[in-house]
């Protein structure tokens, strides 16, 4: 694709800004999810599905994905502009997070032409919701120990087992599924296979999981003699670990190619400063407390560093010494940062930090408390913070596994 002129970039930005200004919906009467992991009611789901479809049809989602599969066929710079203007206008999150950010890029990267034609447009339009079947109840962060079985039977695989923390599993049409096809493999990783599994076949059942916040968003998924076509296998039998690792690169933001938009509403750092000036502790604003100001400065510095590192990662000479350091550490630093900033916002409120959504004495309708409780999911999904530390140690610093 030829280089885009500044005039073309500016024109696209002006059009996107005008469109989002006119089309971002008014805040509904019901509580909106802060992240895709909190979509727990039909009202929320239908509202966000309609919004994603509208953004896609306007050309501001999937703009850089190939046109022949349903994307816009434009330059990535234009999609980046559209996402920036979406955020500036305060638009709702995109619903189909796993499809847009993990499954879709994976299919474009490693899938067949038939799979791209079958799945990509439905991902972008939110007609086909995707979920992820990696974690299992008995194996925690040890993804390689997955025991959900997939047994070949003619033109099908028969699936038995269970997956947990299946985000939007009760709404999903498809699952990216990691299952064990060879329990006798010498290396446990060699016995795993990766499937683009339909969720609508008999024998697939989901049970919603209620979170500490009282909200839903996750399910446990049970497979009981569920038959899925062998054509849904990706990468070949026994190659599932390699495909799963590529998927996690997308999930952790270490590899580009996502469809655009955003799937989480992050805390506004400037509003934390504003809260410090309003929240009273011992009869005085929290901002007057030197310890609070010190923590605020540290968090603001981290926030600025995160923004600058996003740019730095794209400048090869600046990362030549450790090219993987920024992409592999971004998920860890970002998820822990937002947990910490919500925690500080709660601490600044003193006794008011104990109030929750709907209680009249709560600051900002307890958005900070709700955001804090929900922030832990981001420190777990895609590999816990502890796992992320291991990855950085091994793949960036070259430390041994033992």
CATH C-level name of the largest domain:
Mainly Alpha
Number of domains: 3
What profile does the largest beta sheet have? 4 strands, mixed
Give the name of the CATH architecture of the largest domain: Up-down Bundle
Q: Rg, please? A: 22 Å
Percent helix: 40-55%
Number of helices: 11
Q: Give me the CATH fold name of the largest domain.
A: Butyryl-CoA Dehydrogenase, subunit A, domain 3
| Overall number of strands | 10
- The side-by-side strand order for the widest beta sheet comes to 1-4-5-8
Structural class: alpha+beta
List strands and helices in order, with pairings:
Layout: H1 6-23, H2 42-57, H3 76-88, H4 97-110, H5 113-125, E1 130-133, E2 149-153, E3 156-167, E4 174-180, E5 192-198, E6 204-209, E7 218-229, E8 233-234, H6 240-251, H7 269-278, E9 280-281, E10 284-285, H8 290-312, H9 325-348, H10 367-380, H11 385-395
Parallel strand pairs: 1-4
Antiparallel strand pairs: 2-3, 3-7, 4-5, 5-8, 6-7, 9-10
């Amino acid at each position: 694709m030829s280089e885009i002129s500044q005039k073309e970039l500016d024109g696209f930005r002006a059009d996107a800004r005008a469109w989002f200004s006119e089309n971002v919906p008014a805040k509904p009467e019901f509580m909106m999810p802060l992240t895709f992991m909190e979509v727990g009611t039909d009202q929320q789901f239908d509202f966000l599905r309609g919004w994603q479809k509208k953004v896609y049809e306007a050309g501001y989602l999937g703009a850089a994905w190939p046109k022949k599969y349903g994307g816009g066929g434009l330059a990535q710079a234009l999609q980046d502009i559209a996402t920036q203007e979406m955020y500036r206008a305060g638009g709702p999150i995109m619903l189909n997070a796993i499809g847009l950010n993990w499954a879709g890029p994976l299919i474009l990267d490693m899938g067949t032409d038939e799979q791209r034609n079958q799945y990509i447009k439905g991902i972008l339009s939110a007609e086909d919701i995707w979920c992820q079947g990696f974690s299992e109840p008995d194996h925690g962060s040890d993804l390689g120990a997955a025991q959900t079985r997939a047994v070949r039977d003619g033109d099908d695989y028969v699936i038995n087992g269970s997956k947990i923390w299946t985000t939007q599993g009760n709404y999903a049409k498809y699952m990216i599924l990691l299952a064990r096809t060879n329990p006798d493999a010498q290396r446990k990783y060699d016995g795993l296979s990766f499937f683009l599994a339909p969720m609508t076949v008999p024998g697939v059942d989901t049970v919603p999981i209620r979170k500490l916040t009282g909200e839903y968003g996750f399910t446990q998924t049970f497979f009981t003699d569920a038959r899925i076509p062998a054509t849904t296998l990706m990468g070949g039998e026994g190659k599932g670990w390699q495909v799963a690792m590529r998927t996690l690169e997308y999930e952790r933001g270490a590899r580009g190619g996502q469809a655009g938009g955003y799937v989480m509403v992050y805390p506004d750092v400037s509003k934390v400063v504003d809260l410090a000036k309003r929240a009273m502790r011992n009869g005085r604003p929290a901002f007057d407390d030197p310890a609070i100001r010190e923590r605020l400065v540290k968090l603001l510095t981290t926030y600025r560093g995160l923004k600058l590192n996003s740019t730095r990662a794209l400048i090869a000479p600046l990362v030549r010494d450790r090219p993987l350091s920024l992409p592999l550490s971004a998920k860890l630093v970002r998820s822990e940062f937002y947990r910490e900033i919500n925690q500080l916002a709660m601490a600044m409120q003193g006794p008011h930090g104990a109030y929750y959504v709907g209680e009249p004495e709560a600051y900002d309708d307890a958005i900070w408390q709700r955001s804090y409780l929900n922030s832990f999911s981001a420190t777990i999904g895609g590999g816990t913070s502890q796992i992320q530390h291991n990855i950085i140690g091994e793949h960036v610093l070259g430390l041994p596994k033992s």
